[in-house]
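Reopening this one. Same input as before:
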Amino acid sequence: MEAAAGEYCSSTTTTRSAEKRKQREKPYRGIRMRKWGKWVAEIREPNKRSRIWLGSYSSPVAAARAYDTAVFYLRGPSARLNFPEFIVEEDGVDSNDMSAASIRKKATEVGARVDALESALHHHAAEEINNSSRVSVKPDLNEYPDPENSEEED
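Same output, byte for byte:
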């Protein structure tokens, strides 16, 4: 009886660590990270074995937004989304009649737009950090001081 309890405990510990690892590796549904750091998104077509490739992105948010767009057009408003607040239904678009190619096109457009915005934000933030940490011009210690421009101390 004790061995069974020990096995159960070991099994639960393994399951918990696997869940934590999975959460770390996949912050959002429908995406995964390549070995070299890019985030990719793809989705399986309903009732088929084939997948729709949604693109490769530099941020997990961009890949997740591409996935959300595709899953919304495939499964409708009841789909489980990463960012439900960002889905906008277009007037006159029947999501049931969309082909895999048109779903891919819409998803990659959204993903690329989000990726560009995130890259611009990160670039702007990095510039702000660099500009704020810059020190004023350092004096040339090999020059003799100019008595006319130097400040007198009291």
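So the earlier flakiness isn't reproducible anymore. For the record, The first strand starts at residue 31 and ends at 33.
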